[in-house]
Amino acid sequence: MQRRATTLFNRGSWPEAKRIADILRLETVGGVIMLAAALLGLVWANSPWAPTYEALRDFEFGIASLHLELSVGHWASDGLLAIFFFVAGLELKREFVAGDLRDPRRAAVPVAAAVGGVVVPALIYVLVNLGTPGATSGWAIPTATDIAFALAVLAVIGRSLPAALRTFLLTLAVVDDLIAIVIIAIFYTDDLAVTPLLLTVVPLALFTVLVQRRVRSWWLLLPLAVAAWGFMHASGVHATVAGVLLGFAVPVIRRAPGEGPGLAEHFEHRFRPLSTGVAVPVFAFFASGVAIGGMDGLTSSLADTVTLGIVAGLLLGKLVGITAATWLVSRFTRAELDDDLAWVDVAGLAVLGGIGFTVSLLVGELAFGEGSRPYDDAKIGILLGSLLSALVATVILRARNRVYRRIHEEETRDDDHDGIPDVHQRDVID
């Protein structure tokens, strides 16, 4: 029997397509809110009221005896962002346990693309900064893709983009987050305290036991999650890693058919709005507030190798890395693009992957330190690289809009009015 050829970016199953569409709608709204918060922070930091912004960002509160007397800005990056990574952990586990990507052949493309989209931008950044002392510590800054920001742009320029490409972008960004977490844990942990790190296992294990028994009581789970976060923070490993580990602990599969949504789906439904609507926008507000210093300051930053390396990494590195990795997968597996798509579509999506924001800003803070000149240059590079990526992706994807509109009409046609697009029913029959 002849084996059916593998097709890149073909349609997934209807349940998975519907679930992805629901996630995209939430992330798109969150991206708009995040963009507004980032612009507000940037404008405020460069206004006559800049001292008020800095006083708010640097105001410290917390429990000093537990080493948790942090500034508001640090609470946003270390605390609120843990919610974002918790949701990322849930989503990543969901994708590879119960999603269409549990099939290794289907998962190979976004995983390879994510790896390419990390390696090439990092190499470009290092090459640009080889002669600048201390600058190479920011090599991981241009490796991240901000899914909420990217989808907010897609909502404006690519409403008819095929579902398979949207799924590819979402999954690529989720895998990208996992790689970023590993990078943060390994390369941006300077002083490791072993005792708190070992103590992290205790609340994490208790949390795991409870969620595996399908316990949903917040008064039991939340204190354990906070304790795991606190011990992780005290260990020197960035506290957001605790969020991912907690997300990985939550079971995805239902114990019995018809018992309602799985626990991972339940938590994702509860925490994704909090992540996209509160945690990430607040972090963006405090992280984007860089004082440019007028035209002279902007000119100085644009000439700095940190800024140039980040812009080149986000704009060119993502394009080359994601496109090349996807092409190599197709080359070695002899897979072919879906008949409706062309490689320019992959290139457009790869450029869109150059919109790095949330994780890029976090890595920039870890690499250079809050308030340092290199970190300010990194912020400008992240903002400029993301803006240029959005503009170039707009040009590429809008040029193909007529093709996308035809595909979208086919994907959403439901002549029998049963709530399932006909194209997915034909896929099952075929």
Automatic annotation (TrEMBL):
Q: Where in the cell is it found?
A: Cell inner membrane; Cell membrane
What membrane topology does the annotation report for this chain?
Multi-pass membrane protein
Q: How is this protein named in the record?
A: Na(+)/H(+) antiporter NhaA
Keywords, comma-separated and alphabetical: Antiport, Cell membrane, Ion transport, Membrane, Sodium, Sodium transport, Transmembrane, Transmembrane helix, Transport
Output the InterPro entries linked to this UniProt entry: Na/H_antiporter_dom_sf (IPR023171), NhaA (IPR004670)
Name the family.
Answer: Belongs to the NhaA Na(+)/H(+) (TC 2.A.33) antiporter family.
Q: Which residues cross the membrane?
A: 28-46, 66-87, 107-127, 139-157, 169-188, 194-211, 218-234, 240-257, 278-295, 307-329, 341-368, 380-397
- PANTHER family associated with the record: NA(+)_H(+) ANTIPORTER NHAA (PTHR30341:SF0), SODIUM ION/PROTON ANTIPORTER NHAA-RELATED (PTHR30341)
Q: Does the keyword Cell membrane apply?
A: yes
Q: Principal localization?
A: membrane
Pfam families, A to Z: Na_H_antiport_1
Q: Which GO terms describe its molecular function?
A: sodium:proton antiporter activity
What catalytic activity does the UniProt entry give for this protein? Na(+)(in) + 2 H(+)(out) = Na(+)(out) + 2 H(+)(in)
Question: Which HAMAP family does the record associate with it?
Answer: NhaA
Q: Name one GO biological process term.
A: regulation of pH
The UniProt entry's GO CC annotations, sorted and at most eight, read: plasma membrane
Q: Which domain of life is it from?
A: Bacteria
Described by its record, this protein's role is as follows: Na(+)/H(+) antiporter that extrudes sodium in exchange for external protons.
